Amino acid sequence: MRENQDLACLVDEVTRSFSGSGASLPDLFIALTQTAHFRLRRGNPDGATSLPGADGGVTPDGGVPPPPPPSDAGTPGDAAPPTTGDVTVSRKTDSQWDKGYCDAVTVTNKGASGVDWVIVLTVEGTINQVWNAVATGATGPVTFRGVDFNRRLEPGQSGSFGFCAAR
Hints:
Blueprint: H1 2-19, H2 25-33, H3 36-39, E1 87-97, E2 100-109, E3 115-116, E4 118-123, E5 126-131, E6 133-136, E7 140-146, E8 152-153, E9 158-166
Helix pairs in contact: 1-2
C-alpha cells in the first residue's frame, strides 16, 4: 500500500530530524509540523469534496487519469505565460494517494522589474484545497493568483502556494 510506504517515510523523516536535535519535546513538535502530512490537507476518504468560494460544492471526476509523477519542475504546457513579467514556475507533487494528490508550486520573478503574478496550470482531477493563492476554476486549466503577502514579486523573488485535488 502506497499510504503505508508514505507513512513509513514520514516516520523515518521525523525520527532523523528529532534524533539529530537532541531529542527535546519542542524539537519533536517542530519536526512534526515541517512534514507534508502536517502542512497539507487531504480530501475526504469517501472522495466527496467541496471548494470554498465556489458556486456550491464540486465533486471529483472518477474518470480523470492520475497526476504526473513527482518532479521538481512542471511539465511543458503546465504553465501558461504569465499576464505580466518574466515568471518561471516549479511544480512538485508533495503527496499522493489513491483518490488524490497535493502539489507545491513556486513562482519566481526572473524579470528586471516587480510583477503581480498570475499563472495557469493544468489540474488533473478537481481541486478541493488551495493555500497561499486564489484559484479560478477547479479542474483542467486553472488560473492561480497570489494573495496579499505573495502577490507582488520583486526581481529574483519567489512566492509559493499549493493545492490538493481529488481524482
